[in-house]
Write a structure and sequence with these properties.
Mean pLDDT of chain A: 82
Oligomer: heterodimer
Helix content of chain A: 55-70%
CATH topology of the largest domain in chain A: Rossmann fold
Shape of chain B: elongated
Distance between the termini of chain B: 36 Å
Radius of gyration of chain A: 36 Å
Shape of chain A: globular
Largest sheet of chain A: 8 strands, mixed
Number of helices of chain B: 12
Number of strands of chain A: 18
CATH architecture of the largest domain in chain B: 3-Layer(aba) Sandwich
Mean pLDDT of chain B: 88
CATH superfamily of the largest domain in chain B: P-loop containing nucleotide triphosphate hydrolases
Strand content of chain A: 5-15%
Number of domains of chain A: 6
Largest sheet of chain B: 5 strands, parallel
Structural class of chain A: alpha/beta
Order of helices and strands of chain B: HEHEHEEHEHHEEEHEHHHHH
Helix content of chain B: 40-55%
CATH architecture of the largest domain in chain A: 3-Layer(aba) Sandwich
Low-confidence stretches of chain A: 23-36, 434-440, 453-488
CATH topology of the largest domain in chain B: Rossmann fold
Strand order of the largest sheet of chain A: 8-9-15-14-13-16-17-18
Number of domains of chain B: 2
Distance between the termini of chain A: 71 Å
Strand order of the largest sheet of chain B: 2-5-8-1-9
Low-confidence stretches of chain B: none
CATH class of the largest domain in chain B: Alpha Beta
CATH class of the largest domain in chain A: Alpha Beta
CATH superfamily of the largest domain in chain A: von Willebrand factor, type A domain
Number of strands of chain B: 9
Chain lengths: ~775, ~270
């Protein structure tokens, strides 16, 4: 054990002063508190003197490190260190100091000083955590990416950061910093960087815009382009040393898009600077690397930091200087493009090749947040998008009975090349039509309308023009489709119709109903486990009490209804008004009372659950859990409610499952029926909606609500799909609305936007991006709908 | 303070041109409606400029503007008028709607869905070609002069079934759709209204655009132009930009923790 004096002299050596004050102003104003404002290093001595010498050595070393940055921070550290060693190991002490230094880097010394004043639970948690996991922040990152890209890009974990133009891949873990907050910033910069790559078209160079260069490269290296590959992969493939070309490209192109990114997002620029500064220490000296990777490292450092680590000599220095010049020249241009980067890449490649001796190229490791470029993944991603687009286009053309143009792929390619903002909503396809297909104008307009519909951007085109177009295009379509209708004739037998409710089905091509087309039968849902409800309530116990509380607030208070014929109190306002009316010679109103009334909330709601085969597994399980929570919440209120399910297989078998009728109490039977809910066949939505409408019609209530829980488009085994299914469902909903029933749809199909709006209208639906949210969301939506 | 001044509502004519940037042809449409004596419904999300547009049109058409903010206790007497007793005498006092009709003003019923349904019915005879306002109590009918115009506003974004506009009411109006202005224009508006410089306005607009991308993805409604302007005003008064954006643009639009976090990250991305 060290003596007090030994400890004291060590502290004095490290800190160089005997006392620290935190607030000089304070000291001056409150003179007699002088001593309290300043703290002497003697205060730190007793605690430290209790420690083992080996531990003290570590603490001195760490204190020294801190003192170089800020003496007061180090002093606070010494004060707290004896307490710190009781919380964590000697190794963790180092982490603790690291956390504090990061704090100082990111926010300045003041918060860092405070950080060392004590050990909080938060600090302990941070010390014991090891890096930030992607899964922990996946949702935030997804929302973030959604917002940046306008719903174009998803996020997924991988072990590197890159993008295939459809999804942004981020590492499963970031352990760059001790603190998760800073680690998150690494994720954020990575995500924003991937966004910039797409936004500024970094991964989609257009070979057509650099034909000369391509020809030259093909001749020089004897390699050729292929339609199997997309632009970037093709370009890189032209070089004998593909990895070298790709690395040069990523450095050059990085300089171009980073400049744009910095301009667009100041905050990202700041975070990039912070990461780059930290990275500097880790960068190798270019001179110590092999010739080729040394040049790339040198160019990268020069472009990023404006200097290189250590001197560059000889040919290497010359190549880097010239390469840097080339990039700078390009950046001088008003709007440099990715094609410009390609040209510069080719020139630098040639420089390297000619001036530096050929040697095996081990590759180059860029700053982590810049990620990697995977040309073959980009090709795969773009091919997939184009294929989807071609399919969409073909299906539209087919629907319109227009012959498929032979060069559809090159047209799509063209649209991809010309579209101004690759991230704009539905851009290439939309643009394709604005550029003009080689088809008659009026049909093109008709297609445009389809496109608009597909993209959910209704209302941009003049309606009168549309009518004309529809007329001319419509005749063709009708003839085409009527031929198809007979394909799927399903005969109804006597047996099918016995005890069945018969419902019409809307045929939009003919513009009329098919009378008594569907046979719907009511079935009581078989009972399932009696433990399901209990388990659900246990699982969501916190949520249940929250929801109950929220619903209690919905419970109507006693409400004073003014100007009533009868009531408990006299309505003074009404009385004065009547008196004035009487005096003026007008007929006074007889409604002079205030009635105290509770029955203001008169709501009947029917839940209609899609039990089609696609809900098998955890979709249906989650729907069931959501229903349990919903019932718990509704029991708090006096709202009448019923739960039905539906599924079907062709028009002869529309099954309508009863889980809870309006007049049934929420009892064990109902609970077991919820547990028994299962996935069956297809989604023929029209008949069950019509049936619920009938049930609701017979239920007395001021407000009648129909909430449909669905996971996809209306679709049946026969011709009930595509527009037919959507139009019939839409018609069924219109019929319901006419009977003062308000339909609302909750769907978990994230692709639903284009058709759901057609059926439920602009505000009659909500899309959940994750089924898991349903138990929380369902009661919330109901609450919002009825307040 | 330069002292307040009391004016009768129908004398309140806007003499100074209110700042308004047209987004499409809404000004022409409104003028055409005015000439043809058609009632107008302004449809659009909150904070996108509906009320400002009304002030601008009132100024442009040189008519007084009478605005009634509707609430659920608004009765038809509140709109039309009532008898009052004054020292043993009874006096009839016109409501704002009656005064607007008499003065040939523009009457603007803001957030009409908030009013009780039976109340909205009194405007029906004014909205068709009769253009009359019956005052039952007095057994009178007021015929609206050509200058009178009725306008209502309606935000279809509210999803509550209890607050939907009746079709019989809705179909009496021609409707002008309002959305947030396009980027360049919104930037100009934010600069003009809040006094921030071009860069800050651009950053705010970019942020607004990104937040609006989240509508239907968990946000009920995106950050309105008004919120952008508020953020700009706070910045202009010395609040640090990221903090101002958080106060004005993140906190008001959501309570979902992850959503809030993501929006905060967007803010620190832009600022």
């Amino acid at each position: 054990m060290p003596t007090f004096e030994e400890v004291r002299s060590q502290l004095l050596r490290i800190l160089g002063q005997t006392s620290f004050g935190e607030d000089v102003m304070d000291v001056r104003f409150t003179g007699f508190h002088y001593a309290r404002g300043l703290r002497s290093i003697d205060e730190a001595v007793p605690g430290l003197a209790e420690l083992q010498n080996s531990v003290l050595e570590v603490i001195y070393a760490l204190g020294e490190k801190l003192a170089k940055r800020d003496k007061e921070m180090a002093f606070n550290f010494f004060m707290t260190a004896p307490d710190a060693v009781t919380h964590f190991s000697v190794e963790d002490l180092e982490k603790w100091v690291e956390l504090g230094l990061e704090l100082a880097d990111a926010y300045g010394v003041v918060p860092a000083r405070n950080f060392f004043k004590g050990i909080t639970r938060e600090t302990i948690e941070k010390i014991h955590s090891h890096g930030l996991e992607f899964q922990d922040v996946a949702r935030v990152l997804e929302i973030y990416m959604n917002a940046l890209s306008g719903d174009k890009l998803g996020v997924q974990e991988a072990h590197e950061s890159y993008t295939d133009t459809r999804t942004v891949f981020l590492p499963s873990k970031v352990e760059e910093f001790e603190s998760d907050e800073l680690n998150f910033r690494v994720y954020k910069v990575m995500a924003a960087y991937r966004y910039a790559q797409l936004r500024y078209r970094s991964l989609e160079p257009r070979l057509g815009r650099m034909e000369e260069l391509i020809n030259e490269l093909q001749q020089r290296y004897g390699r050729s382009v292929s339609s199997e590959r997309e632009g970037l992969e093709n370009f890189i493939h032209l070089f004998p040393e593909e990895q070298l070309a790709l690395d040069i490209f990523s450095v050059v192109e990085g300089a171009r898009i980073e400049r744009n990114l910095r301009r667009e997002f100041r905050g990202i620029a700041r975070d990039m600077d912070m990461l780059l500064e930290r990275e500097w220490e880790r960068r190798p000296e270019p001179e110590r690397l092999g010739e080729r990777e040394g040049v790339i490292e040198g160019l990268m450092q020069l472009l990023t930091y404006g200097r290189t680590k250590g001197e560059l000599t000889g040919e290497r220095a010359e190549v880097v200087r010239r390469a840097h010049e080339l990039v700078q020249e390009m950046l001088q241009k008003e709007r440099p493009t990715v094609e410009d980067s390609c040209r510069v890449t080719a020139e630098i490649y040639r420089l390297v090749e000619e001036r530096l001796p050929a040697s095996p190229y081990p590759g180059f490791r860029n700053v982590p947040f810049r990620g990697v470029i995977k040309p073959e993944q980009v090709t795969a991603g773009l091919k997939k998008t184009k294929k989807e687009m071609a399919q969409k286009l073909e299906s539209i053309l087919e629907e319109l009975d227009i012959e498929k143009p032979p060069d559809i792929d090159s047209m799509i390619q063209h649209a991809f090349n010309e579209v101004p903002d690759p991230l704009a909503y539905g851009a290439p396809l939309d643009f394709l039509f604005r550029l003009g297909l080689d088809i008659p104008d009026e049909v093109q307009e008709e297609i445009l309308r389809e496109i608009e519909k597909l993209l959910g951007e209704l209302g941009e085109i003049d309606a009168s023009m549309l009518m004309k177009v529809l007329d001319s295009a419509g005749r063709k379509i009708r003839a085409n489709i009527q031929a198809r209708v007979t394909e799927f004739q399903v005969e109804l037998t006597e047996e099918d119709m016995r005890d069945a409710y018969m419902y019409d089905e809307w045929d939009y091509k003919v513009g009329n109903y098919r009378a008594a087309w569907c046979a719907l039968k009511e079935r009581v849902m078989p009972k399932g486990s009696d433990r399901f409800v209990e388990k659900t309530l246990e699982k969501h116990s916190g949520l249940v009490s929250l929801i109950r509380r929220q619903f209690e607030m919905l419970r109507p208070d006693y409400r004073r209804l003014f100007k009533q014929m009868y009531g408990e109190e006299i309505d003074l306002d009404a009385f004065v008004e009547a008196f004035a009316d009487m005096k003026a010679g007008a007929t006074p109103s007889e409604k002079l009372y205030i009635k105290i009334d509770k029955k203001d909330r008169d709501i009947a709601v029917a839940f209609l659950v899609d039990l089609s085969g696609s809900t098998t597994g955890w979709v249906i399980e989650t729907e069931k859990e959501a229903l349990v929570l919903m019932c718990e919440a509704l029991e708090v209120l006096d709202d009448k409610y019923a739960i039905f399910g539906f599924s079907g297989k062709t028009r002869k078998q529309c099954d309508f499952y009863i889980i809870k009728r309006f007049d049934e109490p929420y009892d064990d039977t109902v609970k077991q029926r919820i547990a028994g809910m299962d996935a069956f066949d297809y989604t023929r939505m029209g008949p069950p909606i019509r049936h619920v409408t009938r049930i609701l019609e017979e239920t007395p209530a001021k407000i009648k609500l129909l909430i449909v829980l669905s996971d996809g488009k209306p679709e049946d085994f026969d011709e009930y799909k595509g527009d037919h299914g959507i139009e019939d469902t839409k018609k069924a909903l219109i019929e319901a609305k006419r009977k003062q029933i308000r339909p609302f749809c909750i769907t978990i199909d994230t692709e639903a936007r284009d058709y759901i709006q057609r059926m439920f209208g602009e505000i009659g639906y909500i899309i959940l991006d994750d089924v898991a949210k349903l138990p929380r969301k369902l009661p919330e939506i109901y609450r919002r709908l009825t307040t | 303070m330069d002292g307040s001044k009391t004016l009768r509502v129908e004398e309140y004519v806007i003499t100074e041109e209110p700042y308004y940037e047209p987004v499409g042809n809404e000004v022409e449409v409104f003028e055409a409606a005015y000439r043809n004596k058609l009632p107008v419904m302004l449809k659009g999300p909150t904070g996108c400029g509906k009320t400002r547009f009304m002030q601008y049109m009132a100024w442009k058409l040189k008519r007084p503007l009478i605005t009634v903010s509707c609430h659920d206790d608004l009765t038809s007497s509140d709109l039309v008028g009532r008898y009052l007793v004054k020292g043993g005498e009874t006096v009839w006092v016109d409501g704002p709607l009656t005064r607007a009709v008499k003065a040939g003003a523009i009457c603007y019923l803001d957030e009409i869905v908030e009013a009780r349904k039976d109340t909205t019915v009194v405007i029906h005879p004014l909205t068709d070609d009769r253009r009359i306002l019956p005052i039952e109590k007095r057994g009178e009918i007021i015929k609206a002069p050509d200058e009178f115009m009725l306008a209502i506003s309606y935000n279809p974004g509210y999803q509550s079934v209890l607050k939907d506009l009746k079709h019989s009411t809705r179909q009496r109006f021609i409707s002008i759709d309002f959305t947030y202005p396009p980027k360049e224009l919104e930037k100009k508006i934010v600069m003009q209204e809040s006094g921030v410089d071009g860069d800050t306005a651009e950053a705010l607009v970019t942020l607004g655009e990104k937040i609006r991308n989240l509508k239907d993805k968990g946000l009920e409604e995106g950050a309105s132009t008004r919120l952008l302007i508020y953020a700009g005003m706070l910045i202009n008064s010395g609040i640090e930009p990221a903090k101002a954006a958080e106060i004005a643009m993140a906190n008001p639009v959501t309570d979902d923790a992850d959503m809030l976090r993501a929006i905060r990250e967007l803010i620190t991305t832009v600022f």
